[in-house]
Amino acid sequence: MPDVTDGSVGRHLVRLTIPTIWGMFAITIFNLTDTFFVSRLGTEALAAMGFTFPVVMVIGSVTMGMAMGAGSVLARAMGRGDHHLMNRIATDGILLSILTVVVVSTVGILTMDPVFRVLGATDETLPLVKQYMGIWYVGVIAFIMPPVGDSAMRAMGDMKRPLIVMLVCAVFNIILDPILIFGLFGFPAMGIAGAALATIISRAAGMVTTLAFIHFHYRLIDFKYNGLGELFASWKRILHVGVPAAVVRLFPQLLRAVLTSLAAAVGGVSAVAAIAAGSRIESFATIISMAVGTALIPVIGQNWGAGRLDRVDRARVLLNRAAIGYGLLITAIAIPAAGALARIFTTDADVVLHTRWYLWIVLPGTIGLNLYNWTSEQLNAAGKPRWVVIINVVGTAAILIPLTVVGSRVGGFVGMLVGLCSGQWILGYAATRVGKRELGPVAGVPAVDAVPPAAV
């Protein structure tokens, strides 16, 4: 792996982004495969899977928060050449994920009935939900553990092995879903429970692959401790970034819920359908944005740990320019193609019209969206999660939601989207100002980096 603390910052970002994009596509295919085959079981089964999404997404936010925390600390440790801390973070991050599994599995199994009743599951769908989640909770370790290991590899600048892990998961899931759901090749037909089992087995294959890379290739698994305090010090370092990162990942879902509710009020069913169709089209552009956000962790983290603040500042400037350029590019594509893209999902004239407006207005807003998302990832990589919380939580509550609500009241569906886009631009600009102050060449190294592990 090339040293990201030397050479062209831009080339490192491109090199690390490309394999990550393919990994994101692999996970998208994984999720679409589940939905496609379960839909063949009927409306109730598909609805039952829909009820599982909020719970899985919340747990996924916690998982990604831990992974972000581990990756941030490990990248900075690598930049300083602290191999002992690298071993500790990789190993103790896995142990923390195991502890999380115990809590999630126990609480989840004991609360299935009340939780999914609150989410709206009926007497017909609740048994199907419990069939799926009963298996999912038992095997949740295969869902929670791999992201920590994958994040550790990415933090070292290795994007190819996490891609292999994602491809392993996707291929296993594509093969196992029809076999276990419909009972092919002599296997019993398990229905929606088969989808859950296929997911867990596929994730388990990815988990084994991740652990094999971490242990045999990088030799990061190390259970030799100077004292129990080292374990708790590692967990503190991981959670210092991980807890805010997990909380922040919940707020886009809140904004999406508000957007859907407002769309129903101002535009009815057609507007809600347009939000759903537009979001799916938008998600393909988001894949590249998420890949860039993942790729910048080793670049920012390692250079920050190495004290190369000039390179951190260079990356910050490049990412700000990339956010503007990418937003303009997808907007230029959306203007002539919006109608054709909308008709992929519907032939209803009202829905097509609303979807066109969605794409024309929301996609330019990705300039601001990427500015504050990428700035947040840079701050996390540098170990400054407090500003990430301020940007995302306060920004969502004080800028995005109010402007979206005001826009809906002034201009209906179009006004709502204009309010959202304007809010993203404002928040994006504010984030760049924070980034310049906290990540610029005169920024100080956070105190948590200066504290020896045994003293934390």
Q: Can you walk me through this structure?
A:
With 456 residues, this protein is mostly helical. The chain folds into two domains: 9-244, no CATH class; 250-450, no CATH class. It contains 14 helices and no strands. Helix 6 (141-155) packs parallel to helix 8 and helix 7 (160-182) runs antiparallel to helix 8. The radius of gyration is 22 Å and the shape is globular. Mean pLDDT is 84; it is low at 446-456.
State the helical fraction.
over 70%
Q: Report the order of strands and helices.
A: HHHHHHHHHHHHHH
- Let me know the number of strands: 0
Classify the secondary structure makeup into a structural class. Answer: mainly alpha
The average pLDDT value, as a whole number, equals: 84
Largest sheet entry: none
* Gyration radius from CA atoms, angstroms: 22 Å
Distance between the termini: 31 Å
Low-confidence stretches: 446-456
Binned strand content:
under 5%
How many distinct domains? 2
Number of helices: 14
Overall, the morphology is: globular
Give a brief outline of the structure.
This protein is mainly alpha-helical and 456 residues long. The chain has helices at 9-39, 43-80, 83-110, 112-118, 126-138, 141-155, 160-182, 192-217, 228-248, 251-305, 309-342, 349-381, 385-439, 447-450. The protein has 2 domains: 9-244, no CATH class; 250-450, no CATH class.
